[in-house]
């Protein structure tokens, strides 16, 4: 979790919550509930340290480019952010389209941000738009206020973890859906890398229902 002289992080393995030992949940399957509780457990362990940020990684992550990942983390250390998604998934065409749209929107607002700083344009109405002003503080290679499926590799700040521990309780969203919804609320400053830095190793797809239907 913490930075060291010889590596990016000092690692700490957290044993995942066993779904078979959990009582029946009202809204979500035992697997979805166990995954959420496992991430909360990792955050709780992190808060017992004096580190400012942590990288939470599920055990099936695969870093695609370590040097590039190190460079991105160095950039992020000097910025004000709460959660950064460094690895995401593209499970279907619909998700690929959403990622393309989000990345394109980011480019458009980057351009508008640059235009808003030009002489004669600083007083234009578009210059005061929240997303235009936000683009001026968004580092290159990232999209602000966007999170896509995949919670297998992400950075978090202490204050973010302290808030997450009391949200989604009782749980009604999976961890992917929760982070996606949270990014749209813009309560926290959440970033996502435009180009994936960590994938998940192939695994057997979840065969059962993720959510429960109530009558």
Structure notes:
Strands 1-5-3-6-4 form a five-stranded mixed sheet. A two-stranded antiparallel sheet has the order 2-7. Helix 1 (30-47) crosses helix 5 (158-164). It has helices at residues 30-47, 66-76, 93-116, 130-135, 158-164, 175-185; strands at residues 53-57, 61-63, 83-85, 142-144, 153-157, 190-193, 198-200. It has a domain at 19-89 and 143-200: Alpha-Beta Complex (Spore Coat Polysaccharide Biosynthesis Protein SpsA, Chain A), CATH 3.90.550. It is α+β, with helices and mostly antiparallel strands and 215 residues long.
Summarize the model shown.
With 215 residues, the protein is of the alpha+beta class.
Low-confidence stretches: 1-6
What portion of residues is helical? 25-40%
CATH superfamily of the domain at 19-89 and 143-200: Spore Coat Polysaccharide Biosynthesis Protein SpsA, Chain A
Number-wise, the strands total 7
Tell me the distance between the termini.
44 Å
